[in-house]
């Protein structure tokens, strides 16, 4: 409990009579909620001075081999002591806790699946086994991998990021998106299978035409280059969505589609496959979510899609991750966080990721730490108390995870990173002593490739040609690059008022660069007001603050041009192995000191690696090629700084090699997704990111 709860108990029962308290400081894993074992240390002393203390020593859950393991660890914990060990009530089975190491991370899930099947053959049902991790994102990855390996799992994870739910979200987006980018996922459905070439033809047609959202389905015969099979499939889709448009209720659309116009719900209903049952549960959960959407302005489907993005971005979808009670009887492996497993027990417990970079994890300092002296019982500064508490909690997490197992406990860890460097094991393992057996395993089968990770069959006519910002996007997320610059359906991110502010500043910057006439203070003010109004901020509640921010950025931009002669920027073509990178500087200035500056102007803040990424390398290569003796600069208006780019010969060669590799990967159709809970919900391709239709995709870039 937290300190406030103890004070409340004092107020309710000052003398402590008839109060009975139980706790285990070694299982204190809810510090983020304010809980602290500090209260236990004060019991019978500063708090409830007449209280009596005792210690429970007998463990009725686990076999002696497992009790010995977590007891050995307990005696070395910050919250433990030499008397923290427990005695097992049960008889031993001769199976000590085991550490199974593999070489690479992708082999870990295969070793995990093999161990699950091994325990099942020994009499442990799937439902009596649990995989415990420190975070939900890792559990989601493990769950998907285990399903591909044929192991049934009982885990929903992030509901809106499940494949079957994203399929439905993509379908709904077809009704409100003029580009119909959701067809990328719909074309992968068995009910509406469409070739990649046909989907590409649809996109090309919609880019050239001006159809209202969703109306193109009524005119599929007018789409050129679509195969006869493709037209038949599109006609089936048109019939399935008949009567619905962008004003339709999303719940009505999907309920009608799933139950009346397709066999999708029926297939899930009769399937004996545990994975299908879990998918059915996820869809049921999603339909319940849609049925109770709050009323609001705008199109219902668009409003719902925006709400989904917001829920995922803020992590407010956690209630939707809970499985219904009726699903608990399913014979499937439980996937849980250690926090979620507290208080539960399983015949076999599996804990992957026992590496030093996973547990104990060193969290970043809190953005707003408590003032020094505010935390009762803390020693040192508030930051020192926070770090000490986090280190203690990491020990408690490991203790809780071990003590969930009744009969078998198996730990896993890869020993190498993806680059071949050594990946150290968790130091917690050495503290288990002789209670832990270790062995290295080499899985006999590979981990099946996820559908969304498979390469695209890209047939390219001629050489590749991309701009430096485009290739920089490939570095940050190859999948988004694919949607944006190969398929041309990526669109813009979901905009906010601050993003509109930056667009307004960007438009003024571009106008200043395009004009040879100096800008007066009054002209700058007028242009700023006009640009803000054009972006819809003219009547915004924070219009004055936005105007001040925009003015500060623009004044810094103009100050950097003072006394310099602006030259017309010229696009520079860089040839790399027959492929082409096109670098277009935002402006070129000849300064009074005779130094020419080739500049890239950005309205935002500088990213930590921006001065060293491939975009920066491309700009340096362009300057060396077309502007000998000039300097390359990155200008960030929000920071009020202009940074000169400088890479050593070794660094520049490394970035050049990386550029060449990226171009080779693009030609080979390799576009893996860089998954991030922070950036993905804002991505234009959030609802379609995943598998692509079968068949080749023909493209010409130059």
UniProtKB/TrEMBL annotation:
A single cellular component GO annotation: cytosol
InterPro entries linked to this entry: DNA_helicase_UvrD-like_C, DNA_helicase_UvrD/REP, P-loop_NTPase, PDDEXK_AddAB-type, UvrD-like_ATP-bd
Record field: transmembrane: none
Entry-linked SUPFAM superfamilies: P-loop containing nucleoside triphosphate hydrolases
Enzymatic reactions: ATP + H2O = ADP + phosphate + H(+); Couples ATP hydrolysis with the unwinding of duplex DNA by translocating in the 3'-5' direction
Pfam family membership, one: UvrD_C
GO BP annotations, alphabetical order: recombinational repair
Alphabetical keyword list: ATP-binding, Helicase, Hydrolase, Isomerase, Nucleotide-binding
Domain spans labelled UvrD-like helicase C-terminal: 64-343
GO function terms (MF aspect): 3'-5' DNA helicase activity; ATP binding; DNA binding; hydrolase activity
Enzyme Commission number(s): 5.6.2.4
UniProt cross-references to Gene3D superfamilies, sorted A to Z: P-loop containing nucleotide triphosphate hydrolases (3.40.50.300), PCRA, domain 4 (1.10.486.10)
Protein's name according to its UniProt entry: DNA 3'-5' helicase
Phylogenetic lineage: Bacteria, Pseudomonadati, Pseudomonadota, Alphaproteobacteria, Hyphomicrobiales
């Amino acid at each position: 409990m937290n300190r406030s709860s103890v004070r409340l108990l004092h107020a309710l029962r000052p003398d402590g009579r008839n109060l009975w308290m139980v706790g285990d400081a070694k299982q204190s894993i809810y510090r983020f909620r304010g809980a602290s074992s500090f209260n236990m240390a004060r019991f019978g002393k500063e708090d409830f001075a007449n209280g009596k203390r005792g210690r429970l020593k007998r463990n009725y859950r686990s076999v002696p081999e497992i009790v010995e393991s977590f007891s050995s660890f307990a005696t070395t914990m910050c919250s433990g002591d030499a008397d923290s060990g427990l005695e097992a009530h049960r008889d031993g089975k001769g199976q000590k806790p085991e550490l199974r190491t593999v070489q690479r991370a992708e082999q870990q899930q295969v070793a995990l699946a093999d161990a699950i099947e091994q325990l099942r053959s020994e009499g442990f049902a799937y439902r009596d086994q649990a995989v415990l991790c420190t975070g939900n994102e890792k559990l989601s990855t493990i769950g998907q991998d285990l399903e591909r390996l044929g192991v049934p799992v009982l885990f929903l994870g992030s509901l809106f990021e499940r494949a079957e739910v994203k399929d439905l979200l993509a379908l709904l987006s077809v009704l409100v998106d003029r580009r119909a980018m959701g067809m990328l996922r719909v074309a992968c459905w068995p009910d509406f299978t469409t070739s990649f070439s046909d989907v590409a033809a649809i996109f090309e047609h919609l880019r050239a035409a001006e159809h209202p959202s969703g109306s193109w389905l009524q005119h599929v015969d007018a789409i050129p280059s679509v195969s006869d099979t493709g037209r038949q499939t599109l006609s089936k889709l048109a019939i399935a969505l008949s009567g619905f448009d962008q004003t339709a209720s999303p719940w009505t659309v999907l309920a009608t589609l799933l139950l009346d116009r397709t066999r999708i719900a029926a297939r899930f209903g009769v399937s004996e496959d545990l994975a299908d049952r879990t998918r059915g549960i996820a869809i049921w959960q999603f339909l319940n979510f849609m049925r109770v959407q709050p009323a609001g302005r705008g199109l219902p489907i668009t409003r719902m899609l925006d709400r989904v993005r917001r829920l995922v971005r803020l992590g407010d979808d956690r209630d939707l991750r809970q499985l219904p009670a009726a699903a608990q009887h399913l014979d499937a492996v439980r996937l849980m966080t250690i926090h979620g497993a507290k208080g539960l027990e399983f015949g076999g417990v599996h804990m992957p990721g026992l590496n030093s970079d996973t547990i104990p994890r060193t969290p970043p300092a809190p953005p707003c730490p408590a003032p020094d002296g505010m935390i009762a019982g803390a020693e040192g500064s508030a930051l020192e108390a926070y770090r000490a508490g986090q280190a203690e909690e990491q020990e408690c997490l490991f203790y809780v995870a071990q003590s969930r197992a009744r009969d078998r406990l198996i730990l896993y860890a890869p020993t190498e990173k993806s680059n071949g460097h050594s990946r150290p094991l968790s130091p917690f393992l050495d503290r288990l002593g002789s209670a832990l057996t270790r062995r290295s395993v080499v899985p006999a089968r590979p981990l099946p490739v996820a559908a969304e990770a498979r390469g695209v069959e890209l047939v390219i006519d001629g050489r590749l040609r991309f701009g430096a910002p485009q290739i920089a996007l490939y570095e940050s997320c190859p999948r988004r690059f694919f949607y944006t610059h190969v398929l041309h359906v990526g669109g813009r991110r979901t905009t906010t008022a601050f993003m509109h502010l930056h667009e307004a500043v960007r438009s003024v910057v571009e106008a200043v660069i395009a004009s040879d006439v100096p800008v007066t203070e009054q002209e700058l003010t007028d242009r700023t007001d006009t640009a803000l109004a054009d972006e819809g901020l003219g009547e915004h509640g924070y219009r004055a603050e936005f105007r001040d921010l925009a003015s500060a950025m623009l004044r810094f931009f103009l100050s950097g041009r003072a006394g310099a002669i602006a030259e017309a920027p010229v696009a520079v073509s860089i040839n790399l192995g027959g492929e082409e990178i096109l670098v277009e500087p935002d402006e070129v200035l000849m300064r009074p000191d005779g130094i020419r500056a080739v500049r890239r102007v950005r309205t935002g803040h500088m990213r930590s690696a921006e001065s060293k990424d491939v975009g920066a390398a491309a700009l340096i290569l362009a300057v060396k090629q077309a502007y000998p003796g000039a300097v390359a600069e990155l200008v960030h208006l929000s920071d009020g700084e202009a940074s000169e780019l400088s890479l050593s010969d070794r660094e520049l060669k490394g970035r050049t090699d990386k550029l060449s590799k990226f171009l080779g990967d693009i030609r080979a159709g390799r576009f893996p997704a860089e998954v991030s809970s922070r950036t993905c919900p804002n991505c234009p391709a959030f609802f379609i990111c995943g598998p692509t239709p079968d068949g080749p995709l023909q493209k010409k870039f130059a």
